[in-house]
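ok trying this again, last paste got cut off
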Amino acid sequence: MASSSNPFDFDDDYDDDDADEQCGGDDDDGRFDDAEDDDDPVDVWARGPQAIAQLMAEDASTRPSRRPDMLADLAAAADDDSLKMLPFLRGANENEDKGGFYEHSVGDDAAAVRIAEWPLAVGCASVSGEPAWGWRVWDAAKTLARELEGRQLSGGSVVELGAGSGLGSLVAARLGATAVVCTDLPRALPLLAHNVQLNGGVQLGSGDKEARATGGESATTTAVPVLCPGQHELREEAAEHDTSTTAVPVLCPGQHELREEAAEHDDHVCNVCGLDDELDSAVHTGDAVFVCRKCDFDMCRRCHAEAAAGKWTELPGWLRIQCEGAATHGQRASEWRLPSPPAPEQCALVEGPLLLLRPWDLIATSAAEGVSGVLGALEARAAPPPSLVLCADVTCSAALVEPVVAALAALLRAGAPSAEALLVHEKREAAVDAALLSALDTAGLKHETLPQAAEGKLWLMIVSE
């Protein structure tokens, strides 16, 4: 995993909700609690890119544990605001082995919507330098979920653009929507599927009737079978030989098979365990390393062997979801049934709501093509056109503003007569904020900013034709 630039920007005083708790707290001077010793290499991560750049001026011979090549990459990108995520990723490492859950209570319902998150995977599961944003529940998604609770969704259809971890979609389903279409990049779908299962969902065609009879309990208590390419269930056996190498492919987050190479230098960082090594590396010159050059994803021999052998308990949870989840559910469209909402007298549903997971790359796929796929999926399930579109912090870069607005406009025009969108935008850069307002005006969309969002940080908008 190498440092690289990306179009996303972060404020210097980044303080997303729960970030201090995840990272061990933040002192008044902006440093994290675990950064107390000037000689501790971990302190470098807490101080940010400028501190990393300063290290390059030190005599490398006096700090042999630090790898010059890696530091050179980081120092060269010291002006890249994406590196401001590094302290957060380092601090998140404490809870990485077990992962964590974000819970959102819906009204008086005792069973909260649960979302699995592994904050460290935002960086570790990146593809070609683009962070995997879905592995963290961000403030914008929390704001969107809270806003949904004041709305009447019973009997309607909802579409979410850039669903990420799926919080908004799952809350909409819990509130009585008949069908919810969750869209995101193909590589984000395994996490979405995992969180649907975590909330009692069962994929249609794989025990849907049983799930309805048990209220979805089987989705959380029954293991999902792992299949070979011939679609036969894999059976556990005692190994009769060394399993350090195997014919079972291990994939990167972009779903490319990792290839073995001999490390040409000490600059390789294992995307799975590399941040456990502070600023040192478990991969040294000549060691075997398994790589995907296209996605800039590296894995050390130990992690690769455990993944190939299916020893998922020895690996962080995000890797299993990304790799094994992709093998079982794929990065393609899938349909799920959730348990009925807990208060059936308040909604018209006889059976649980549908969740339709669909890949939609907003930049690579035209708005017309994306909307056609969404409407086709709803029509195939006899669900009504969308009455509400959700979008939480997808307009986080200038490159995404116009595609998002085009998708919103197309969905609203093809939706129910009174269709509207809830758009949450986190303000990071004035130029991007201005571009969003301009794009909405150019598309002929009305937009009203509500006061409920966090002061000075988020815009919560109602968008309509």
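PB: full thing came through this time. The two ends are 44 Å apart (CA to CA).
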